[in-house]
Amino acid sequence: MKLSDDQIQQALQELPDWRFEDGFIKTEIVCADFKAAFSLMTRIAFEAEALNHHPNWDNVYNRINISLQTHDAGGITDYDIQLAQTINALKA
Hints:
single chain, alpha+beta, Gyrase A, domain 2
């Protein structure tokens, strides 16, 4: 079920470095180098596949930009919050 703007803002209080913008929750992760960024993306990919919920993302050298939205729901859902929490745990 699609979350309200208030629910999204409340969830983001527990998600450092994430913001709500243009209908997505977004973050940018800066890694030590390309190898570290690619390694993190690979770990995220395995978790996303297990959740059957996949990010929109891009990578340039050591930076990963991630945007999450549940396309079927037309907005942010608990799936996006759960994947964002998983991503935060993996980058720690």
